[in-house]
Design goal:
The structure is a homodimer.
Chain A (H helix, E strand, L loop, with lengths): L2 H14 L15 E3 L7 E9 L6 H23 L2 E13 L4 H17 L4 E9 L4 E10 L15 E5 L9 H4 L4 H10 L4 E4 L4 H12 L2 E5 L7 H5 L1 H4 L6 H7 L6 E5 L1 H10 L6 E8 L4 E4 L5 E3 L11
Parallel strand pairs in A: 3-4, 8-11
Antiparallel strand pairs in A: 2-5, 3-5, 6-9, 6-10, 7-9, 8-10, 11-12
Chain lengths: 313, 313
Amino acid sequence: MTLRPEFALIERIQKAAGGSSRVPLGIGDDAAGLACRDDRETLVATDMLLDGVHFVVEECGPYWAGRKALAVNLSDLAAMGGRCMASFVSIAIPRNWNAREADELMRGVLELAAKWDCPVAGGDTNSWDGRLVINVAVVGESIEATSIRRAGAQVGDVIVVSGALGGSIYGRHLMFEPRLDVALQLLKLARPNSMIDLSDGLSSDLWHILKASHVGAVLEQKLIPVHEDVRHHADVVNLSSQPAFAHALHDGEDFELLFTLSAAQWETLRQNWKLPIALTKIGMIVSEEACRIVSETGESKELVPGGYVHRFG
Amino acid sequence: MTLRPEFALIERIQKAAGGSSRVPLGIGDDAAGLACRDDRETLVATDMLLDGVHFVVEECGPYWAGRKALAVNLSDLAAMGGRCMASFVSIAIPRNWNAREADELMRGVLELAAKWDCPVAGGDTNSWDGRLVINVAVVGESIEATSIRRAGAQVGDVIVVSGALGGSIYGRHLMFEPRLDVALQLLKLARPNSMIDLSDGLSSDLWHILKASHVGAVLEQKLIPVHEDVRHHADVVNLSSQPAFAHALHDGEDFELLFTLSAAQWETLRQNWKLPIALTKIGMIVSEEACRIVSETGESKELVPGGYVHRFG
């Protein structure tokens, strides 16, 4: 690594990073300075994305790798009932990359950062002999006085999911839109008792809520919204060996919001919901600490967390 | 990568992470929740450390790699006149590591985090085929209402450095203590006009202050505190080709504090300084936007930033 190219990249990022009244001190000092509110919870999420594990940069290109690294963190903020303030981007660039590839990566970050008013306020750039690594940390704050957590699901709560699930591997795992607008609109209309974003897959992420809340769930299979990507790629996903709804349950990286709220709050929400992203009731929270799914023929089975299996590398 | 070992590591970190009243929500949700003050600047620093670039883990072991990754960030907070609140640790672990090695790495992080009351409040763990990567982000706040920045040095300011410089390669670049206590004590006694931590080397880091403040400096060579490591390892560093003070000027990774303040403030500070870490006046801020160094024989030369040359990899 030499000093000059690294510093030039930082300067290009600095010029493009944008600003915000919440970030009085951005890139260029030993740390960034943020103006936080003491009547809000300051939220911090971080994720490290690795070439060959979370994406294959030779296939998707630097732009989508960079975009995904920010997007997964914005999805985490949305899942807390939060909005963003600033992002921090650390990258280890393969030594054989040229400036254009590094710029493309940062364009993926910066365009999404601009869209959601989450200026890049700091980070770290290195080059090395290894594969691309991107770590993003985002700082945000709860929209209301406190955040929405995984713990808090109440017996009798309705379980709701945004969007449609499954088959993200065909592109959505890179190109998804973090559901910050869903979280904001949701909190205007109703207060979820618990929330998470779907990164590991519905069956695993619901299990995180159940475990944290010490409750169980009953899902109705016919209500699970299956994304059209699953059927569209039916030849590839081999629907004969695994039915479409199983992809919706276990595929992972949907980055939709999964939340629970009282039946009364759900009724209010359902009647007033105006965003084009569907909200679907998929089941109920129950006291028995297990997760069951009821098939279209009325058969009830235990739903085992599918776990997250890395598809690459 | 499999789910189970990764989650077990997270659970072990969670148990050992400690807590703080400033971190109402630590590890275990989509994001951490911090209680920030609106009468302080919230500070965020982040650094990505790579095996073969910032350390060689086969030589130093996982403990010191982990410790360094947090320490460099705490040094950044100190340089802002800040104190810490929480740290966020993302790691990409080589697939052939065992649990003991991962635990050793986290012990290096957690022991330093406990010492400085900077609980690990979140992060991300992955394993992969590449070399070890550690990214740490720290969140802190300014000790006073605002932070001390690189910009702000005034013509007539005294330039002061903590500790002694040079030869960090012989161990201090891994084992240094971040100067959070120096920053705290300093702000009790005086208010620096500008400050930075010495990561790239005195000649480079001073240049950052000068550039940001639109001023120049004159250093006195005989005042530069040369660390005993330089002379102790004189056989290795080849003092015949490069004098000892040149190592103090250019070596880098000293992680001491460099700051400027008025002559009156320096007098107050000097008379009341009680910490065992020396503060040394090394020069003055001048209006001419250049950096000059005056030798022991009175010869004045321009001091060129030595730049940071990675020693490994």
